[in-house]
Amino acid sequence: MSESLEGRVALVTGGARRVGAAIARRLHAAGASVLIHYRDSEADAKTLVGELNGRRAKSAASVKAELLAPIAPRALVSAARDSFGRLDLLVNNASSFFPIGLGAVEASHWEELMGSNLRAPLFICQEAAPELAKQAGAIVNIVDIHADRPLKGYPVYSIAKGGLAAMTRSLAVELAPKVRVNGVSPGAIACQLAAW
Predict the structure, then answer these.
(1) Would you call 140 exposed, middle or buried from its count of C-beta atoms within 10 A (0-12, 13-18, 19+)?
(2) Catalytic residue list
(3) What is the residue extent of each domain of the chain?
(4) Residues 136-171: tens digit of each pLDDT
(5) Class of domain 9-184
(6) Strand segments (E) across 27-133
(7) Which residues have a Cβ under 8 Å from the Cβ of 189 and sit 6 or more positions away?
(8) Are 21 and 189 in contact (CB under 8 A)?
(9) pLDDT (tens digit, 9 = 90+) per residue, 50-93?
């Protein structure tokens, strides 16, 4: 990343650990102030916020939210404004990821995987769009290679990520030219299989 993000504010969902923490650190290193969302990883979030604020005072904060709760999108955008006065970049990284083969899929599996990987990003984007438009901001959705190449044993996850890829393309049209919308599809990443 060669462009300076000094003065910009980024919200990273699922930002306390693994890929999300790496994204938060990289944005922070480029000069952005970072709001780190977490659900269950409070200790990791506090450690990361302390690390980033140790490098640059008052440049990081955290917010706890269950993304499937109806109030979560508004709470996240409000937390960014309350913490830093603006929002320039939204990274939809939070994701549940677990195997559930065809024949064993239950409604609760569908709700968790579709909710975290597709529904929550849509409603967070919708809530953040007016604020991002003011700043000529951007949205980056962390999709997955399995949106295009389904992973055996993970049909609902692959379907959800396929939906997120389609949503990303759709929002790129809907929010242009004021808000840039892109998706990134990482390949295999060594990490523990756990939810955000």
Answers:
(1) buried
(2) 157
(3) 9-184
(4) 999 999 999 999 999 999 999 999 999 999 999 999
(5) alpha beta
(6) 33-38, 60-64, 89-92
(7) 18, 19
(8) no
(9) 999 999 999 999 999 999 999 999 999 999 999 999 999 999 99
